[in-house]
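hey can u check if this looks right to u? its 77 residues, i copy pasted from the old doc so theres a chance i mangled smth
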Amino acid sequence: MKESNDVVNNPRHYTSGGIETLDFIAAKLGEQKYEGYLCGNILKYISRYQFKNGLEDLQKAEFYLHELIELLSGMQK
C-alpha cells in the first residue's frame, strides 16, 4: 500500500533521516528563537498565498500557527 504524502502537515521529505525537521530545529534553537521561527513562517505563508500556492500556503500558515499555540501553551504551564 502506498503511503499518502501530506504536503502540509507531514511531508515525507521532512522526516528523512529518522528525525522530524521541526523537532531538530526546535532543539537547536530553544523556545524563544523557535517561537520567532514559527512566527516568521506564519508571516511568510500568509503574505505569499495569493502569489504562489493559494490554499496550500494558507494551510501551511495554519499548521505553523497551531505549532506556535502548542509551544506557547506549554510555556505557560
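Residues 15 and 21 are 6 Å apart (CA to CA).
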